[in-house]
């Protein structure tokens, strides 16, 4: 006879980003501990307090010592130590492509630890002409401006059919200009700050370079003065070509790039012509168009007539340089186990 079992990996590591620290902590901690492992978690040096507070709650709840361990620190020290450690057999990371490369190399240089990597994105959102225009404009704005664009799966390339392009752009600019910029703790605020000055400067530099390369800046594109924090105005740009840096590289900021397309074949080819493959969105009332895009998109998740839809039962992750492996779903549970196959030869029957 033969049977298989799934057994805990053992000691695992996790490195989480600064943009959604509590959600990322839950995505790493829950499946790891549920499958019988222990975890060493490094939060971002920019946002360590969330993880430290959760760790205090874990102690209060009576978890045995050593089950969940939070180790703040910089990537070059704490992150590198986790990635190279010979006793850590599995590591899950969400963050940048460059750091993901370092972690993958560290795994190869140490003990070939099992990796889950959820990295960057330059995700397409495709708008067909048969949609409710106001709904599509609103959804596209949510897809890029939520949390100041500081989301790996933001809809950062908006492809709009030529039949509705001009009106879509006009309405998008109107909505961007209407956003109330201010303290994110104020319930009336629509648009908050970037995480720090480095991110603010990087976003503004990419906008400036895009204009130099020939893009048209329709609104925004500047920092906001007079507020505490590092704000960038909601920005809308058109006139990009697909080969420009601003059209290829992840901005991680409130910059809506709107492209024009003619045919479904063209837009699928262009949307797939990216080093990233995290998510894609499509808005259409034509089920054939929706299913064609969903089938052909080289991404880990496709959203049809919605965006940012997530379910704990459904796996989330990317392909190409957006990473490998999955968070959430059964796939995440499996990632924290090793499969063992057992063969048993029974004695001959008398």
Question: Main sheet: which strands, in order across?
Answer: 9-10-11-8-7-13-14
Main sheet summary: 7 strands, mixed
- Which sequence of SSEs, written as H and E, runs from N to C? EEHEHEHEHEEHEHHEEHEHEEHEEEHE
Morphology call: globular
Q: How many DSSP helices?
A: 11
> What is the residue-averaged pLDDT?
97
- Percent helix among the residues? 25-40%
Oligomeric state as shown:
single chain
Rg is 22 Å
Looking at this protein, list some descriptive labels:
globular, 11 helices, 35% helix, 350 residues, seven-stranded mixed sheet, six-stranded mixed sheet, 22% strand, alpha/beta
Topology:
Layout: E1 2-8, E2 11-15, H1 21-34, E3 38-42, H2 49-61, E4 68-70, H3 75-84, E5 90-94, H4 97-109, E6 114-118, E7 124-127, H5 133-145, E8 157-161, H6 165-178, H7 197-212, E9 216-219, E10 235-238, H8 245-248, E11 255-261, H9 264-272, E12 276-277, E13 279-283, H10 287-296, E14 301-304, E15 319-320, E16 323-324, H11 329-335, E17 337-343
Parallel strand pairs: 2-3, 2-5, 3-4, 5-6, 7-8, 7-13, 8-11, 10-11, 13-14
Antiparallel strand pairs: 1-17, 6-16, 9-10, 12-15
Helix pairs in contact: 5-6
How would you describe the overall organization of this protein?
This protein is α/β, with parallel strands linked by helices. The strands form four sheets. It has a seven-stranded mixed beta sheet, with helices on both faces. Strands 4-3-2-5-6-16 form a six-stranded mixed beta sheet, with helices on both faces. Strands 1-17 form a two-stranded antiparallel sheet. Helix 8 links the parallel strand 10 and strand 11. The longest helix has 16 residues. The protein starts with a strand and ends in a 7-residue tail after the last strand. The mean pLDDT is 97.
